[in-house]
Structures
1.
Amino acid sequence: MAQFKKDGESLINPESRIRLKLGVIVPFFLVFLLILGSQPAHAYIGPGAGFAFLTSFLMLFASFFMAFFTLLTWPMRVFVRFFKRRKAFVQAKTDRVVILGLDGLEPTITERLLKQGKLPNLLRLKEQGSYSHLQTTYPAISPVAWSAFSTGVNPGGHNIFDFLSRHKQTYMPELSSSKVGTPSRKLSFGQYEIPLGKPIVRFLRRSKSFWKILGDHGIFSHVLRVPITFPPEKFNGAMLSAMCAPDLWGTQGTFSFFTTDDSVDPIKEGGDTQIVTRNGDRVEGNIKGPENSIKKNHGQMLLPFVAKILGEDEAELIIGKERIHLKKKKYTEWIELKFKAGLGIKVQGIARFYLLDTKPHFRLYMTPINIDPETPALPISYPYFYSVYLAKLHGKFATLGLAEDTWSLNEGILDEQAFLEQAYLIHDEREKQFFHALDKTKKGLCAVVVDATDRIQHMFFRTLEDDHPANKGKETEKYKNVIEDMYIKMDGLVGRTMEKVNKDDLFIVLSDHGFKSFKRGINLNVWLKENGYLTLKDGVEKTGEFFQGVDWSKTKAYAFGLAGIYLNVKGREKHGTVEPGDEYQKLKRELIEKLSGLIDPKNGNVAITEMYDGQKIYSGPYVNDGPDLISGYNIGYRISWNGATGVIDDTLFDDNTKAWSGDHCIDPKLVPGVIFSNMKIAAAKPGLVDLAPTVLDMFGVAKPGYMTGANIFETTRSGVNGRAHKIGKVETVEITEVANPNE
């Protein structure tokens, strides 16, 4: 996963900051329609859409109406479900499938620790079942890969090729998974501007998820935190959204940094610096909320706070009537933040605070403001009340799709220890939700994806290599075992899951891709400019972000996103220059030949192993929406930070000095995932696209004709319902102390 930025005003980071505004716009008159029983408008995502809100009264009424409707229709639903479920498992080879996704688990690290005996539960699973590399997608990026997992098709079939897609008319980025259109008519009412009508919401991932297909056949599923599930879809099950679920600002996660030091440089990426005032032991400031989209000026709503300094390491934070004790370098619990928009409308979020210093300057970190799961301003779960249920059961929890705040560590606001603590606080929330869902899923599917594995490797991969450029000026020795410790912790999670797996259950542990070092960045747009394929406007030596300053009328090709090059094709792009047909094919071959094997002049290493032709890699109805060429970067290389944001200067190669030091946006052949299973795998090269048809087949449901994957297990089995190859309950082992491998 890599990150994008677009100024402090419009920040884009595909796995932690896509500053694309979103919201639920509820016209004033719809309140009365809702009282009559209509449905609330759903959340949507889109540039500059703004945020609007459901009132507390409206939320209360909607909950009451839903409860009343549920009670009224309960007998009929029970009757229908009874007969549907009677047939659901007739052809099933198992009663329950449990899938534990460990995002980014790397095969080489996994295999080394298996050999050293440090992953005893995964080793037992391997010995009594199976272990294999798992083919990832082109490119090896989480939204692309998990979409393939969900649908059983490659990107040409599910239409997610990157975190972002380019607008063919403006060449500007758009969020790839969701798109909205705002109501064109508005009612002016004094200082207020009330939209008339519902926003148009489109979920851009194509092809059905396998859990929706299971639901159509009467099989219930719990699906927790699987990427690209926002907004949540309606199906026979319960879902908690993950990647692309926004914060209350409408971004993919913008933290706040409050300080009395007015000499500090503003945070460049991923956060907002706010200078607060201090008078003696009293500090005053404002917490910025979402844009007030019902007011004509659309300014951000503000929530005043006071911090009283109690000592060198303590303070009291006062927000409204709430008083929160702050202790230096310790996270608070989730704190409710209520913003008033006017007309009785308010929106509520939650955040954690982390006191950094009280002297010589007051310094306070606040997480991105998450949507409150107990009073969600937009749907983050299905059914809508599922997040409320989980919050009441286990307490408030992070709802942001990319909740681990990687940019706060990149920008030096949080240190490594604070980031790790935050990541594991979030992970503990996920574990509680997963085990509750697992206990409730007596029959059917229970699937969860864990994020900490990915985020921790992104931020600490540098510690595995003494010569990594990102180590300069950073603590390294202290954190050398962070990644290994994380793998051991995940093995413990696997063990606790195995204790709950029955003898006839299918249990799968998998990752969507592996992980490698990211030492050097490549700005492919600089190469395209230097080689005559991309032209800047007269007088422009360095572009702004996202191609500001490019002369499209003289440009043949441009690199966009994390792993793709697009040709500027006539009839497709607004200012296309390349003729479809022979010229298009010739240009692709030319670029593949020149860029494959590209050498880094600093060290003589091959930086790009191979450029892939998208039309030869992809299949399905959406091939033409994807990149024309896919960059297969070598280990140690990735698109540069400037290259990812469309900045074009004179720097082709540069060192990566950010804490974000590991990545997987490289040649997919070099970063396969892993798969463990308690059933023998028959496929020689199982891939992510095989998981959906595999699960369908295990429940006796025929896969749709468009699915390109296949069941990875043996098709001919002995025993009742083909269960002979499954293991029973497995004795698990928790390691609390690990010997130093260097001793």
Note: The chain has three domains: 96-160+206-245+401-515+671-737, 255-366, 519-662.
2.
Amino acid sequence: MCGIAGFFHTKRDYLKEKDYFSSILNTMRESIKHRGNDENGTFLSSHCGLAHARLSIIDLQTGSQPMIRMESGNTCAIVHNGEIYNMQELKEELQKKGVSFSTTSDTEILLAGYMTEGPSFVEKLNGIFAFVIYDEQKNTLFLFRDRLGVKPLFFMMYEDTFLFASELKGLFAYPGNTPVIDKNSMCEIFALGPAKTYGKGVFKNTKEVLAGTFLSISEAGIKEHTYWKLHSAPHEDTFEETIEKTAFLIQDAVKKQLLSDVPVCTFLSGGIDSSLVTSISAWELKKKGIPLSTYSFDYKDNSVYFKSNSFQPSEDRPFVEKMVEYCDTKHTFLECDNDDLIANLYRTVDARDLPCMADVESSLLYFCKQVVKQHKVALTGECADEIFGGYPWFHKKECFEARCFPWTMNMTPRKLLLKDDVLFELPLEEYAMNAYEATIAETPLLNGESYEEKRRREIAYLNLKWFMVTLLDRMDRTSMSCGLEARVPFADHRIVEYVWNVPWDMKCPNGLVKGLLRYASTGYLPDSVLYRKKSPYPKTYNPEYEKILGKMLLEVLEDTSSPLTAYVDKEKVRSFLKTPSDYGTPFYGQLMAAPQLLAYLLQVNYWLKKYGC
């Protein structure tokens, strides 16, 4: 993985002020250098500047970027963040057309593919990617993003200059371009956060290349091109055929994503998703005589304070131990404590450039820092719940019937601590409802389906476009802030396309949650793990953590210079802190309850202060 950034103007000649604009490129690259500290480079032409910070995973010796290619009198340059897992097949196709290569990197394949077949070459890619190509002959800049939005790519117009970057901070590294937080920004934060509307960057005028699209920027303006989207169609495979095809797709995705010139590890929680990825990886590497390293995450003394509930019915460690023995992996148990959570709470805001998932995110950042000491590439079990229907809101009647985001069934917790005048000024419920309805309206439906199947498609689509993307953003920013590449085999678009049209009675046969995935995993997992009830990413249950957060938040609100005082009512907070926390009613998803609400508000204050508002 890497970080990319740059600027483009169809008429301005940057070479007339080469030193000045070269220094700007260096500043933009410096802002995202955490995404890749192995190498860096810049490219400057008359109308375009590209910057790259490289994390070397494939072709360690000759894969430097920006990469430039000249053919038939035309020059094209590329910067790329991501991995192309079918690179060898694509390379062989291009070689049959007479294309020659001087490196073994997937980046050169992207550039050669574009110059041979045009921007439609993106449709052939299997991978996670965000890349930018400048075509000198056409004086056109192209921005490409993978089908599910695993890799980030932001852009904006600043005055008459087009800017892009892997992270929002890269845009604001351009001279004079200061971030602006407006009313819509605060609606995003309080009505939707830690999620955000896809396509938006929250800050005024900032946007994000939509998943499955590419942009072309030229004298004709900015044009958006959709190259991939989900289509609904009748599912014609038998249940047995469906299990077989699902198993093949998952195994093939994991095998493809083991592609690396450096050692690979996996995150192992003991749940079915990460366990399946681990098991397939372990068997594949064992064929080559390579042991697999695995990592699990938990909190110090959580076994003492753990409280079983409907969201987290069991602890992970016993199941992790079973998988370590089953797969014979080199395992490391990682733990963090309250000090680690607090120390990384604001660092996650620096990584995301936005308030995020509080300690759910700060803990992952801490863990990634530990993993990267030994490994640069990790495979994870992210995205399976969204694809196979693992979350409670796929199954609960009240979630099924609610006309709202099912992971935020009640807006009351979001409004509980806000000032009355803020609630009057910010139309939070209306903003959230408009975002929800816009996604429902674009859900690809199938004529003739029952109301139940139609609604399940809507819930699945909401998950793919919102909840899954929030978790993918969390994984990308926390891992890349440490220089760790996290891969997500379940986010292979072939899996998503196929399972999208599988009817519910096959996804959840006889009421078995994620039954299709479980049957497709047979032979790779012990039964105790295969049929374990879902338990999400762990969080701390240490009561001292909430006390620390409450004290910190009151201290912030006592300081009249704190920007949060304009939004949060101090007396409401005091009353809130006197009430026992209810860990069973999260304000977002399954994990973010009372302690996480306090931590989120602390992040909001830090974010507002950092960006000068």
Note: The two ends are 32 Å apart (CA to CA).
